[in-house]
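Second opinion, please. Pick holes in both lines of this record:
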Amino acid sequence: MNYAILRTAKLKTIGNIGGSLAHSYRTIETPNADPNLTSKNHHTVATPEAVKKAIKDRLPEKRRSDAVLCIEYLITASPEWDGWGTSHEAEFFKRSARWLIDKHGEENIAGMSIHRDISTPHLVAYVVPIDQKGKLNCKNFLGGRAKLNKMQTDFANTVADLGLTRGKEGSKAKHTSIKEYYHDINHARDFSITAEPPKPEMFESKARYGEKVTAAVIEQIEPTVKAANSILMDYEKARMDKKVAEDSYETLKKRVKPYLVAIEGLNQEEITRVNAAMQLESRKIAVEKR
């Protein structure tokens, strides 16, 4: 199943906005981005400074000190979607932009960027949440589960005929915020792994408790495994390729060290399960690169 993915972040300070724009315009290091492809990115506004000015110009003079100044939208689709690299990709982003304009009004869209220098392209938009009364009112757009669910459904319906669907409505699956999304893909260089084992239940057998611990460890480290997997692939490739410079190999070795330390103490069955999860991620990455 291929999903339409919509994430939001609330930016409450100009500093928050500036940090996000620095990432979008690649004015700071972005480890997951391929600098050779950055020229393929598209921005509706030429500079981050211009986006920031557009946001400031839309903000009312009177507002609460803790008000959300800008909603950051991140829109993408499943990495496995076969529309990437085809005319469907362009149509997907065109409809995404139109959906945002219809929802917020073109005058409140300070800027949009499409990133194609990463494994799965996505659109990032900066929106000043002005309601129909002209007030800064993020709650009107993102307040409450019912509104968020409706928003997800409305967006998914917009791109449904492109072979995409929304996630299961009412699912208890944990929502991944933009901050968490970027952390997973941008901080693979400095990741760390910790896992808290569950407490045993009364009269629980050792075998059953062992299974529960294994499941808990895998669940807790899964986000880090996803982030680490691409590094591990590069590491193995460098190790096998005798033409790779020695310093490049040593750099990759240092980057993968946290993972090697993290699996110390796990038994072979636990390591096998972790490796299986990583192999699954490897297949996903292979599909993305086709």
Summary: The chain has a mean pLDDT of 78. The domain at 4-172 is CATH 3.30.930.30 (BirA Bifunctional Protein; domain 2). The beta strands are 4-11, 42-43, 70-77, 109-115, 122-127. The chain has two domains: 4-172, 187-289.
